[in-house]
Design goal:
With 120 residues, the chain is of the alpha/beta class. The protein has four helices and four strands. Helix 2 links the parallel strand 1 and strand 2.
């Protein structure tokens, strides 16, 4: 089952749809931490245990994730480096340069916490 909920506002709805389907997955891999937080809330509200019934992971590494119970497992993005890289590339374009197309890869880090059921 694939659900699209790009912000925390839609995540509870997506969580409710998953629960209503009667096919609750063993794990949810969310596109961002806000969605994961909303999904965790919906699952817990329905009486499901995270991670006992459903493991949940996010992507971003926002600070709120470490303060939840259970703590949110997430892939941490280098937010400052993302911004710096974007500004550098945009400044070059504004200055009239037409840079060659390129792919920029920045390192990410897995931050294991309790929401995935893995030893933290």
């Amino acid at each position: 089952m694939l659900m699209y909920a790009h912000t925390w506002r839609f995540a509870p709805w997506a969580g409710e749809q998953i629960i209503a389907s009667g096919r609750v997955p063993r794990a949810l891999v969310c596109a961002n931490d806000q969605t994961a937080i909303g999904a965790m809330a919906a699952l817990q509200h329905a009486g499901l245990n995270v991670p006992g019934d459903v493991a949940v992971t996010g992507f971003d590494g926002i600070q709120l994730g470490r303060h939840l119970r259970p703590g949110l497992t997430t892939v941490v993005q280098p937010m400052a480096a993302l911004g710096e890289t974007a500004v550098t590339m945009l400044t070059g374009r504004i200055g009239g340069a037409t840079p060659p197309q390129r792919t920029v890869e920045l390192p990410v880090r897995l931050d294991l916490r309790e929401s995935c059921g893995c030893p933290a």
